[in-house]
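Q: My labmate handed me this sequence with no annotations at all. I'd like to see what the chain might look like in three dimensions before we decide whether it's worth expressing. Could you predict it?
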Amino acid sequence: MKNMNNIEYKLDPYWITGFIDAEGCFTVPLSKSSKYKQGWKIYPFFKIKLHKRDIELLKRIKSYFNEVGKVGIYDNYSYYHVSAKDELIKVIIPHLDKYSLLTQKQNDFILFKKIMNLIDKGEHLNKEGLNKIITLKASLNKGLSEKLKILYPNIEVIRPNIIVPSNIDYNWLAGFFSGEGCFFIETSSKGNSVSLRIFIGQHFRDKLLINSFINILNCGSISIYKDFTTYSVSKFKDIYNKIIPFFNEYKIEGTKLLDFQDFCEAAEIVNKKAHLTLDGLNNIKTIKLRMNSLRYKIK
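A: Here is what I predict for the chain of 299 residues:
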């Protein structure tokens, strides 16, 4: 298994896109400024924000993108931030044109790209171009701020229609799981009951994409709660014979790799039925205590 701290290893391009689908954000803030003829400063940027322990992964992503942008730490978070116009237009956007986003985040990228094209042509410097940008921004992410809604009323929100491709690259799925996936161990308060489960969820808008994971991984089930769709696998044979081999080949990266390795260690204990012994059960409980959110607790 590759060393998660080896920043020289270049990540797969589809993995990069899958991770952006999970953790990336395209934003176009506007702020009042008398320095600009139209009275607004436009500051578009692309950003990935993670726990500070994942800063090495962000350095690897920055390395993949030919070192454009910057990586840093703020409070308990690390970030990768690209805001220079040429870097967005010549590096970030071409990557995502070639290796397409698959979630509804592709909508945001399409709108962001249109805004960047307008800025590149200098149209943000005139009233008509600024209105076009604000109209696009109304459909981007959560839309316009209340202040902008007052200043620019009656703007129609239109989001492009995204079609889930018939073939999804497995590296994309590994990148997506590295961001949004969860490897989870459940133990009963009494007895020696142990169950392993993986799951990943998205807004209901991405239900067709999430449903496709059943065919890709040849196992699992879908559940829907309110506006949230979740894919999960809890059958041990499927986890041991399908999920773990899949992610051993198509790598989980970042600190979530530690969760996956712990998950695999627990799966070996269960496969050998050692969890039926007190020592084996205690080993699994110890593994559980160092996984997921518990790994981030400050001691």
